[in-house]
């Protein structure tokens, strides 16, 4: 009998779209040049280019190790109540029972898990035809909505020279082309494709457009406290939309503002028009969780909730945030000054107004 070579079930597997950031990191890691620098990473690094453990996080870890009341048992499907309440309080800033009764929250695998679960919920409820984003170069959002089978479209955001936001064109496109039950993906702060954020008055105008058009806003909050240095300022857009009475979704990540990228700590919040449907949404989120991770991990969540519920640790966290943002601003100023000093052609003022570690540069060669 002749040899038999069975056809693999994966023989016709098409390659996925390339993730540019991952590809750049792979090229960087393979480069033997000792002076190489990876400018595509988003997390905070120290002066040696190494990840920085926030002092308050290290302190909290040591305290938790000595806490004999902690176990490695799993939490509920939604998470420990202490973490959920702390995550809600830092985002919404209000402990109003009326507001809390309209919010359904669940711990997720960082912000990406929250984006995925939020997309699944919206597809099962309002069945959107289109999801709008300023830029789908963010592979995470693009891949998630591709999986959901929802059409992706972009709206204008930055001016061509990146000196500011083209707010009038943005509103015009949404006013004339967005349809009821479309999804509008928004960065709460440190805008992903530009580093430029809307002014408070512009958020109010945008919220009014969402109300008029029946568009559902979905916020990606990945940099709270690491954009301006003030956690309250960085969620002003979210609180504005809540005050306007809009139903919204929020993907909350603690990766960058706590330096916990490897622990994948996140939360999904769904703000409803009333408390009437909260339990239905809450149960649906639990159903999704059961099929995804069963229960969320506790290590990073314990760190976050401990810091956010301790007055002294919270104060220390605010100080760490200020240290990071002040250094980033200093580095931006240094880069700007060197470009001017070397008379590099172009306008570089935009480097001084971008938020957090976001640095969308017009430089193409070095």
Automatic annotation (TrEMBL):
GO terms for cellular component: cytosol. Gene3D superfamilies: Aspartate Aminotransferase, domain 1, Type I PLP-dependent aspartate aminotransferase-like (Major domain). Transmembrane segments: none annotated. The keyword Transferase applies. Residues 35-342 form the Aminotransferase class I/classII large domain. Its cofactor is pyridoxal 5'-phosphate. In eukaryotes there are cytoplasmic, mitochondrial and chloroplastic isozymes. This is Aspartate aminotransferase. It comes from Penicillium salamii.
């Amino acid at each position: 009998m002749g040899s038999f070579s069975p056809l693999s079930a994966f023989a016709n597997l098409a390659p996925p779209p390339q993730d540019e950031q991952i590809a750049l990191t792979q090229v960087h890691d393979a480069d033997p040049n000792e002076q190489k620098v990876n400018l595509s990473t988003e997390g905070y690094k120290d002066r040696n280019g190494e990840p920085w453990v926030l002092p308050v996080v290290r302190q909290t870890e040591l305290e938790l190790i000595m806490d004999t009341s902690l176990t490695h048992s799993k939490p509920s499907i939604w998470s420990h109540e202490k973490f959920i309440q702390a995550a809600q309080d830092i985002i919404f800033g209000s402990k109003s029972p009326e507001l809390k009764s309209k919010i359904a929250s669940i711990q997720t695998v960082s912000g990406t898990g929250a984006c995925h679960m939020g997309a699944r919920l919206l597809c099962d409820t309002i069945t959107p035809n289109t999801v709008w984003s300023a830029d789908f170069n963010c592979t995470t959002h693009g891949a998630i909505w591709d999986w959901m089978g929802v059409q992706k479209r972009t709206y204008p955001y930055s001016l061509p020279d990146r000196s500011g936001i083209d707010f009038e064109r943005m509103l015009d496109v949404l006013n004339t082309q967005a349809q009821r039950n479309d999804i509008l993906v928004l960065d709460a702060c440190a805008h992903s494709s530009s580093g430029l954020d809307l002014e408070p008055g512009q958020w109010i105008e945008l919220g009014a457009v969402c109300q008029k058009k029946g568009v559902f806003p979905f916020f990606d909050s990945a940099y709270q406290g690491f954009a301006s240095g003030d956690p309250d300022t960085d969620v002003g857009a979210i609180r504005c939309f809540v005050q306007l009475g809009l139903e919204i979704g929020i993907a909350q990540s603690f990766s960058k503002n706590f330096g916990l990228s490897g622990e994948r700590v996140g939360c999904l919040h769904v703000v409803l028009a009333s408390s009437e449907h909260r339990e239905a949404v809450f149960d649906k989120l639990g159903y999704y969780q059961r099929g995804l991770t069963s229960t969320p991990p506790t290590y990073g969540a314990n760190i976050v909730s401990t810091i956010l519920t301790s007055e002294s640790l919270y104060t220390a966290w605010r100080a760490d945030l200020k240290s990071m943002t002040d250094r980033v601003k200093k580095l931006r100023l240094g880069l700007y000054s060197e470009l001017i000093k070397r008379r590099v052609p172009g306008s570089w003022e935009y480097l001084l107004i971008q938020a957090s570690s976001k640095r969308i540069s017009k430089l193409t060669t070095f």
